[in-house]
Specification:
Strand content: under 5%
Largest sheet: none
Number of helices: 6
Distance between the termini: 37 Å
Structural class: mainly alpha
Shape: globular
Radius of gyration: 14 Å
């Protein structure tokens, strides 16, 4: 196991969890922070994939999809997801699988 990736994943998980406990000065600030953390998760997924650390790819995808549950989250997701398709980390079939197990599935 890559200890650097492990530490980074733990930090991203903590940031994502802490995000929901924070108070923000504005909706724009909240949106920016949400997007920043999720963009960092996307970067982590790409890096893990390049290093063939597929268990981290899986864990980070679950973290991302598990924290995508409202309209705003989905907008952010659509803005940042392109690298995962470009690097063939996700395709339409796997996207459907992850969304089916995410909080967004309640909107089916």
């Amino acid at each position: 196991m890559n200890t650097e990736l492990y530490s980074r994943f733990k930090l991203l998980s903590k940031k994502m969890n802490d995000f929901y406990d924070q108070e923000y000065s504005s909706e724009e600030d909240e949106y920016f922070q949400n997007k920043k953390i999720k963009s960092d998760i996307i970067d982590f997924i790409v890096k893990s994939n390049e290093l063939s650390e597929f268990s981290f790819v899986q864990d980070a995808l679950l973290l991302l999809f598990g924290n995508t549950g409202c309209r705003e989250d989905f907008e952010i997701f659509n803005e940042i997801i392109t690298p995962l398709f470009e690097k063939n980390i996700l395709d339409n079939k796997s996207l459907g699988k992850y969304f089916g197990n995410s909080p967004l599935s309640r909107w089916k």
